[in-house]
Amino acid sequence: MHLVERIYSTSKYDELDSASHDKQFHVQHIMRKLGTVPFIGQRILLAASQAISSLADSLLCMGPFDSTTPQVHNCMFIMLQLVEHLVSDYTYSWAMDPKFCDRLLEEWVSCYFQVKKGTDMLEPRNSLYTVYIDRITGELAKQLNKIASLKEKDNRNIHKCIDIWNSLFT
């Protein structure tokens, strides 16, 4: 979770230069590697989504010509990439792990809904956020359906999560 804060704080205080971007990219890469472990990966996914939600709220309050706007946009894209990679690369393997926390997935889906609402409000300023979120949404829907088909009816939390997902995004 401190690594997620590191990406956020780096973009918040540093100038927008290649060194700052490299730091963020390297921290993102470390988080992706740590994400292979379900316990850690799910928490990174939740923390990154909460950070995106916070960034979206701050972008709504910021003027387009504010001096920190480019850094916040950069951080937002790094976080969105992190979420996209974690969802596409690890969601299925996490779910197959016996230590997988269904309730944390359910909490993340609720948080993701807040992220989607926040980025939808940003669409007039930057529609790329909506494109990223839609791509993540599609990938996650595929992963959840694949997980549900394998876990059958013995796991009510996954099915509850899919029901929430379908009610929110269909």
Topology diagram in text:
Blueprint lengths: L1 H12 L4 H17 L3 H24 L7 H28 L5 H20 L6 H24 L4 H14 L1
Helix pairs in contact: 1-2, 1-4, 2-4, 3-4, 3-5, 4-6, 5-7, 6-7
Write up what this structure looks like.
By secondary structure, the protein is an all-alpha fold. The two termini are 31 Å apart. 82% of the residues lie in helices and 0% in strands. The chain is globular, with a radius of gyration of 16 Å. About 3% of the residues have low confidence.
What's a concise summary of this model?
With 170 residues, the protein is an all-alpha fold. The protein has helices at 2-13, 18-34, 38-61, 69-96, 102-121, 128-151, 156-169.
- Poorly predicted parts: 10-14
Category from helices, strands and their pairing: mainly alpha
Shape: globular
- Arithmetic mean of pLDDT: 79
Largest sheet: none
Gap between N and C termini, in Å? 31 Å
Total helical segments: 7
Listing every helix as H and every strand as E from the N terminus to the C terminus, the arrangement reads HHHHHHH
Helix content: over 70%
Number of strands: 0
Question: Strand percentage, roughly?
Answer: under 5%
Radius of gyration: 16 Å
Keywords for this entry:
globular, 7 helices, mainly alpha, 170 residues
